[in-house]
Write a structure and sequence with these properties.
The chain is an alpha+beta fold. It is built from 14 helices and 6 strands. The protein has a 3-stranded mixed sheet, with helices on one face. Helix 3 packs antiparallel against helix 9 and helix 9 packs across helix 12. The termini are far apart.
Length: 367
């Protein structure tokens, strides 16, 4: 049992608040459902936690529901084609998650008989599962007393204890506080309650402190302004990288696509031909770098912000009378009808590039 001290508030007020004010989410077993005997599905918990990394709840909901409709069990996802998984993930971002999702599903199916390990250590042995995801699945799916800490929880903890150490240096101290606060009884509900509290009450701006179940214990509220926490180290300015993208379209309405190599940024996703830009170096920006000779016409510039850099792509478009044969290789291409683009594993930056050259491309796509 967790020992409550002056430095460790009771979790009971938070759990009482959660019982009344929890969010209804498609992957969640609510307190009422649990009271009726409904058990959390580890597959749903794991899938949602992977999707929610660096992504909002509203963005994740439709993806989660589509994945479940298409692959209702982890063994279904394990048996799926890689390209189908990447296409279903397209637009959700951070594409290494999708690659690891598939690898993890395969490991659960082949090495664990389709059953997820029920401990943090067992979960961390799976591909793509780190400390956070292992703790979240262990707590929420298996009711293990694991310390779960995402961005919302960091904010709550930093304010509750008025932690002045800037992030990310404060993460270790914050996790220790979460571990002390997490009760042996209902640790999964506690983890979800902390997330809900950060998302709905203890928000980054204008937190609703009068409604907070921790208001009597919150050190930031007593000593300072809660909005001053968490303290964050000064952000470095993101570098700007440049490159070009080439949209070739036939008279029959087909567009040249190719598949990126599996490793690295956007690995395994579908793209239009682009120059060799990376997070560290610029690519060529002129039509001289096009994949073949044609009457390339400038179609503007698109900007996309990745985690560590900003990319600016010069867009070039060419109308092609006959299809150009593409050489076999890691970047071999194919011609895809514009009406079928929504079915392709196109990341957001590639959709922006295509839309710049063909404004109605995704309005006419069949999906």
């Amino acid at each position: 049992m967790t020992i409550t001290t002056l430095d460790t508030p009771s979790a009971k007020p938070l759990l009482d608040w959660y019982d009344r004010h929890h969010r209804d989410l498609p992957w969640r077993v609510s307190p009422g459902m649990a009271a009726r005997g409904v058990k959390a599905d580890p597959y749903r918990v794991w899938l949602s936690e992977v999707m929610l990394q660096q992504t909002t709840v509203q963005a994740v909901k439709p993806y989660f529901e589509r994945f479940l409709e298409r692959w209702p069990e982890v063994t279904d996802l394990a048996a799926a084609e890689n390209d189908a998984v990447m296409a279903a993930w397209a637009g959700l971002g951070y594409y290494a998650r999708a690659r690891n999702l598939k690898k993890c599903a395969e490991a659960v199916a082949k090495e664990h008989g389709g059953i997820f390990p029920d401990t943090e250590e067992g979960l961390k042995s799976l591909p793509g599962i780190g400390d956070y995801t292992a703790a979240a699945v262990a707590a929420i799916a298996f009711n293990r007393q694991a310390a779960v800490m995402d961005g919302n929880v960091e904010r709550v903890i930093s304010r509750l204890y008025a932690i002045a150490t800037p992030l990310p240096a404060a993460k270790s101290a914050m996790k220790q506080k979460v571990a002390l606060l997490t009760p042996a009884d209902r640790p999964g509900d506690f983890a979800q309650a902390m997330m809900d509290l950060g998302a709905t009450i203890c928000t980054p701006k204008r937190p609703a402190c009068s409604l907070c179940p921790f208001r009597d214990a919150c050190q930031a509220l007593k000593l300072s302004d809660p909005e001053l926490f968490p303290v964050k180290a000064a952000k470095k300015e993101k570098p700007v990288r440049y490159g070009a993208a080439f949209i070739a379209v036939t008279g029959d309405g087909e567009i040249l696509l190719r598949r990126r190599i599996d490793s690295g940024l956007l690995g395994g996703m579908t793209e239009v031909p682009t120059t060799a830009w990376t997070a560290r170096i610029d690519g060529e920006t002129s039509a001289d770098a096009a994949p073949f000779n044609a009457a390339w016409q400038a179609s503007g510039t698109v900007i996309h912000v990745f985690t560590h850099f900003e990319l600016r792509l010069s867009i070039w478009r060419a109308a092609i009378a006959t299809k150009v044969a593409m050489d076999d290789g890691p970047n071999d291409g194919w011609w895809e009808p514009v009406t079928n683009l929504e079915a392709q594993a196109l990341p957001t930056i590639m959709k922006k590039a295509i839309a710049a050259a063909i404004p109605l491309a995704f309005k006419t796509s069949k999906g």
